[in-house]
Amino acid sequence: MSRRGAFNRTVLALGMTSFFMDISSEMVTAVVPLFLTVTLGFTPAAFGIYQAGYELANAALRIVGGTIADRTGRPKETATAGYAVSTVTRAGLVASALVAIPAVPFLLIDRLGKGLRTGPRDAMISLATPRKAWGAAFGVHRTMDAAGALLGPLLAFVVLMALPNSFDSVFVISLCFALISVAVIGTFVRNPTTQRRPMGQKVRTSIVAHWGSRGFRRISVLAGALGLFSIGDGFVYLVIWDHARDGQTIGVGGFGSQYFPLLFVGTAVAYLVTATPLGKLADRIGRGRMWVAGHVVLAGVYAVLLTHPSSTLGVIGVLVLLGLHYGATDGMLPALASGVIAPEVRSSGLSLLTTIVASSRAVSALLFGLIWGWMGADRALVIAASGLCAVALAAAIHAISSPDQSEFDV
Fold this sequence. Notes:
Layout: H1 9-29, H2 32-39, H3 44-60, H4 62-72, H5 75-98, H6 104-127, H7 134-162, H8 167-188, H9 207-211, H10 214-228, H11 233-244, H12 261-285, H13 287-305, H14 312-329, H15 332-337, H16 346-375, H17 377-401, H18 405-408
């Protein structure tokens, strides 16, 4: 196993795997919010229910995937299975575009695959990298991931501009990139040597065992609380869309729906530019501080949305702040938590942590959609921003007052 800093074989191979899978995923994701709200007529509350189901599907297999990876000592095979599940759903989406098969179940099953692979993948990154370079390693991986998230919506935009409403073409191209992703992880990624052990040798991977760690418990509580007030990208873009059409019904007026995928592109560009440098900076100033600062930036996103940005400059400001938030937080949480989880149970520990986050975001999506439908988007944003600032302040106080690097890594 190479441990030559952030740019080692495992990080780069997993980065390429995520790059191709994110092209595939984001080609689909970029058209889903408008497809559901405009084509299928989802209300904000209905979209919130869908988004909650989407997050819960993501959470459903995370602990299972992490536990399997730890108990078998083969995180590569577990992660590969997760990528394969997502690939199969792309074939299902192709079928749904050709015959009368509902597409939503395939979108939810895709999240099951993501849940299965995330913990083992992040564990392999940390196990292949020296601790002092964890922030940079996750930053490198997330940069490659973001590059795929940038190209996916761009490809979807190009396809739909050339072939309007040709969703089957989008799904076929998405399937091709997913197959490449599975081939990359199967060919170039190796299991970390620290996880190889004889079959039948048991490790303690229970929830109780992980929760017994004071550092893990504190990080999990803070991450879950922040997740409760973190609304999904789909909602952010629908709020922009809602403002752009001057308060009319979703889908009427404003910029053309074919340009909607470009909102995802703007966020991905900012994420791509910031992920690696912020990861390196976090290794110097403290991952906990960077993680908290990233959520303060997210509160800034909500604040700008409350000004009803309808100009191009205002919309770009929202997208840049959202991408900056992801650059400061997306890879930071696993890098931060890896310091309080033993190597032999890191897959299950990270899976438990991300399950908590995904579950809290499911609640957030449900509540945000219901509040939007009941009191309007602005009131929902005020509640989300207020809660996020309160939790971020508590996290900042803890980070500043905790000198113990092993617990909060500040």
